[in-house]
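Let's practice the habit of predicting before peeking. Look at the sequence and jot down your guess about where helices and strands might fall. Then scroll down.
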Amino acid sequence: MSQPRRTSRRRAWTALTLPALLCALAACSGGPGDDAAAPGPSASPTPSGPPGTLFDNFHYSGADDPSLAAHGWEVRTGEGGPGIKDSWSAAGAGFPSDTTAQGGRVLQLRSSTDGTKQGTKQVEVQSTGSTLFTGTFAARVHFSDKPTSGQGGDHVVQTFFPISASDSSANYSELDCEYLPNGGWGSVGPRLDNVSWYKADPPDRVSHTLKQHLEGWHLMMITAVDGKVTYSMDGKELFTSSGKYVPREKMDVHFSNWLIDLPFAGGTRTWDMKVNWFYYKADEAVSQADVQKTVDGFYGAGTDYINTVPKS
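Done guessing? Here is the structure:
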């Protein structure tokens, strides 16, 4: 991995429209279901289900849906990096219908720029509470090789990654799946970088790069058990790290769509990354086939959200 460590986030997150009452309900269910125009009026207790499991298919009405925050998700609106600093906006987070998605709904992360810092908006959505450690992380993600609108060529980074709550933690942990359709940091694209971190500053990491166009839907998985981390895509193993390059503390999971730099000005362009669903199983290595079977079961039962991961 030739690119440098991303700029420290200086995490300043805003949980949108989260009344104080809902702060105590971070593990609840009761999303708005299939009716995007009607967010749930209140949160109900977490449904019973397999222990150590987190699943969400992002059936929310918008970034200000109270159920989104109640289910432990935040949309970033704070300052800092990576990419174009202080350009994080909730405007890029949406939950539209999508006929190509399982269940017909997605989390859409739309970044946009006109080539100036003032005209740039990046987007990131993360889980909260730092409850995810070893086990299986899986997400069905749609990567884009071309902008949804405007001229191509931006150095965009479309990412799915678990990471420590603090970049300066003594037990810093980060596991990256980063797709760069046009490359960046002096490299050419397309490229998918899988990176296991031991320390953020100075950078201490191991990585693997797959040079391949990835336009479309992919099942991305990170399995961290028994002293090793395995990255896979659509059931094919890509990279394994071990030794000190494994999780050492609990993490949050992030979905992010951001721009490394601003290579040219003139004309607004938008880049979309989509997430169909996210699944986590604590302390177990789950195969791609079994992940999909479990997710199919949740969809078949009408389960939009479940969280039975212990808090501590």
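How did you do? DSSP finds two helices and 16 strands in the chain.
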